[in-house]
Specification:
alpha+beta; seven-stranded antiparallel beta sheet; two-stranded antiparallel ribbon; 11 strands; elongated
Length: about 280
């Protein structure tokens, strides 16, 4: 029931963000016409000497066209030619400003959608009540759930999963975004190896130590793919890099990081056969 309650909250916010993205994409589609307004303003400016107030249309040579074809520009006869020209420039500037703002908002909305999908994935992979309690607390901090005082005994925070590779290396797997942050920014050292599915929500995976072979790398990559939204896929891309190449931007939501100097392996996810302890 707790899982379902959280998923309902996430679904409602996903719907909200998807509607916002749709609106922003419509704004960008409209703003794509801005250069047409700029061109019309420039053409009127270049032909001011030949145009007179009161005209409802101007036929001018389009010097933006390689064939120098004539083009008709609609005018408001109740405004001066100069005012018509300025009107096109104003419309261009308005669309340019809305485009810049919409692009910024679209990036934020897509980041939020990615975050919400990652939380939903964490809920679906939860193993016990303490996992759900962690996720609920994360959503309270993020502002998606209103805080309510609860005098009941709280579950102890859940811990990341820990496996031993065939070669004996310890591999950590986060079960939610807070654990992912803990593994990547606190537990791991700069020369441990970090793994995550490419373009899919999922766990941060850490291989502790160096000197392991491809066998351990592929076992860790399988863990990353299995504990992700791509669990049922095939040839799932898993990125890996040293932890020192993974950064958490200031203000980023839990579990959200950027990374460089990565390589990619492809795995067919399967139920992990490694010892878990």
């Amino acid at each position: 029931q707790r899982s379902q309650d959280i998923l309902k909250i996430i679904d409602a916010n996903v719907d909200r963000v998807e509607r916002k993205i749709e609106i922003l994409e419509d704004i960008l589609a409209e703003a794509a016409l801005k250069d047409d307004f700029l061109a019309k303003g420039e053409l009127i400016k270049a032909n001011l000497y030949a145009l007179t107030d009161g005209m409802d249309q101007a036929r001018v040579i389009n010097f933006y066209d390689e064939n120098q074809a004539e083009v008709d520009i609609e005018l408001d006869p109740n405004k001066s030619i100069t005012a018509n020209m300025q009107g096109y420039f104003n419309q261009y500037n308005k669309l340019k400003r809305s485009e810049e703002k919409a692009k910024e908002q679209l990036l934020l909305a897509k980041d939020e959608l990615s975050y919400l999908n990652s939380v939903a994935d964490s809920v679906m992979r939860s193993e016990d009540p303490s996992d759900i309690a962690d996720i609920r607390q994360e959503l309270i901090v993020a502002g998606y759930i209103r805080f309510k005082s609860n005098r009941k005994k709280r579950e102890s925070p859940s811990k990341p999963m820990r496996f031993k590779s065939t070669e004996g290396f310890t591999i950590y797997v986060g079960k939610n975004n807070n654990q992912n942050d803990f593994l990547t920014t606190k537990l791991a050292n700069p020369y441990d190896t970090w793994l995550h599915t490419k373009d899919y929500p999922g766990s941060h995976v850490i291989i502790k130590g160096t000197g392991f072979s491809d066998e351990t790398l592929l076992e860790a990559a399988n863990l990353a793919a299995w504990h992700s939204k791509a669990q049922t896929g095939s040839k799932v891309p898993v990125d890996y890099t040293l932890v020192r190449h993974v950064k958490k931007p200031s203000g980023a939501k839990p579990g959200m990081v950027i990374y460089v100097a990565n390589k990619t392996v492809y795995v067919d996810p399967g139920l992990p056969r490694l010892e878990r302890f």
